[in-house]
Design brief:
Shape: globular
Number of helices: 5
CATH class of the domain at 183-281: Mainly Beta
Order of helices and strands: EEEHEHEEEHHHEEEEEE
CATH superfamily of the domain at 183-281: Aminomethyltransferase beta-barrel domains
Largest sheet: 6 strands, antiparallel, barrel
Strand content: 25-35%
Helix content: 10-25%
Number of strands: 13
Distance between the termini: 26 Å
CATH architecture of the domain at 183-281: Beta Barrel
Structural class: alpha+beta
Radius of gyration: 20 Å
């Protein structure tokens, strides 16, 4: 319920279709009582903008602001110490899912204590022309901590270990927040919203499928789209999977019928036409120490 946010606070939210499926998952930043800043998945930005504009019912202006921003994520246990070298903003008071408008390297920046890695860290929003110089300064500032550039593949491994949903995998237009284990982002008491009727029906009648974690017991790596078997019969599909360097195991997330989506159940993943043993487990696979 974004109406309950205070300025400087951020909310993870679902942008939904009327049938309850995801248009996208987004971060809502409350800049002021009459100003909200949405961070969306880059590949969905055009679709999200048109969706929001098509449902605009109030006297509000919706601006497509993506060309004015670049984002750099500084993540890990030394993120604060690294970034603090480059800004006069005191980062210590910024709590998780809060932000401050200030400066980094003397350039205007929005500094948010958010991330997509399961670790502590910050996401810095700045003008695109400032991004490369700030990137270089961040790498210099973090050298004493062993900072390294991280690509999308490494980030995907981190978010999988933390069981954070990825659009097009755990969530899409055919999946509702309740099925994806994201009931905590749904506030039925706030009034009408897209998908409300479908979610109410799911709450009343129960779910047919649910997201669950798993670990491979046999030799093999599960990948998204692979079929999942239970008792030798088709039961679901893998949404994300891969090796976990942190756990030294092959892990994944999958959808199963709700009666099967409980930890400790033996399943099999069809890998190159071979059924490979796995077992459902509670997710997330990894939680950082507070």
């Amino acid at each position: 319920d974004a109406s309950r946010l205070k300025p400087g606070q951020i909310q993870y939210s679902g942008l939904l279709y009327p049938d309850g499926g995801f248009v996208d998952d987004i971060l809502v930043h409350k800049v002021a009582d009459d100003h909200y800043f949405l961070c969306v998945n880059a590949s969905n930005q055009d679709k999200d903008f048109e969706h929001i504009r098509s449902f605009q019912r109030r006297d509000a202006m919706v601006e497509f602001a993506s060309p004015r921003y670049a984002q750099i994520a500084v993540q890990g246990p030394h993120a604060a110490a690294t970034l603090q070298k480059l800004t006069r903003v005191d980062l210590t008071p910024i709590r998780y899912y809060h932000f401050v408008d200030g400066e980094v390297c003397g350039k205007a920046a929005r500094i948010a204590r958010t991330g997509y890695t399961g670790e502590d860290g910050f996401e810095v929003y700045t003008a695109p022309e400032e991004a490369a110089p700030i990137w270089d300064r961040i790498l210099d500032a973090g050298q004493e901590f062993g900072i390294r550039p991280c690509g999308l593949g490494a980030r995907n491994t981190l978010r999988l270990e933390a069981a954070m949903a990825l659009y097009g995998h755990e969530i899409d237009a055919s999946i509702t927040p309740l099925e994806a284990g994201l009931s905590w982002i749904v506030k039925m008491e706030k009034g009408d919203f897209n998908g409300r009727a479908v979610l109410e029906r799911q709450q009343k009648e129960g779910l047919r499928r649910s997201l669950i974690g798993f670990e491979m017991r046999g030799r093999g790596i599960a990948r998204d789209g692979y079929e999942v078997l239970a008792g030798g019969k088709p039961a679901g599909w893998v949404t994300s999977g891969g090796p976990s360097p942190t756990l030294n195991k092959n892990i994944g997330l999958c959808y199963l019928p709700v009666e099967m989506a409980a930890a400790g159940r033996p399943i099999e993943v069809l890998i190159r036409d071979q059924a490979v043993a796995a077992e459902t487990v509670t997710a997330p696979f990894y939680k950082r120490a507070k």
